[in-house]
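Example record used in the benchmark description.
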Amino acid sequence: MYLRGLSAAKSGKRQQAYADLRRCADAARGSDVRWRASLALGVMYFEDNQWSDAGRAYFTAISTMPERPPMDFALWRLGQCYERTGRWSSATAPYTQLVRKFPASELTPRAKRRIELRPTFFAVRCGAFGNAQNAQRMAADLRQQGFGASVRTETTGGKPLHIVLVGKFDTYESAMQQVAAVRSAAPDAVIWP
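Model output (structure tokens):
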């Protein structure tokens, strides 16, 4: 049933995949199939922007999987799910666990950054500059176009980096809605953090 669920997911049969993987995650207690099915469900829910369901699936996978990759991936995604549901302070725990248990993971630098930033909102990142005046100039241009732009200074590699942000959004969806409008003025705009 697990392989059938994965096959259904790859062939775009989402409902069948969800059904098969849920059955595996519920029925396969104490086996590798349970965490693998939970992880696959987490990936699907995440792809479908169902952050709460994805978070529960990742949490279940983490609680039963061995401490080796892909646990680092599951921890990273769990932190993202917490952020995207507005549970900013809860996101610190999986990021910290990722850093501690998987220091060589390619996801560790990203988790360290999130821990250092301690974000409490989403924004639209329009640019990043080593020169503060360039960042202020871009923010002023964006404000003239009607966007609520600000400059935030972060440290990267021991050097200040001036980030131009538009808005402060409680939800990921709100930030995503704003990205399209901001891209008319800043084509490389992405979601921050």
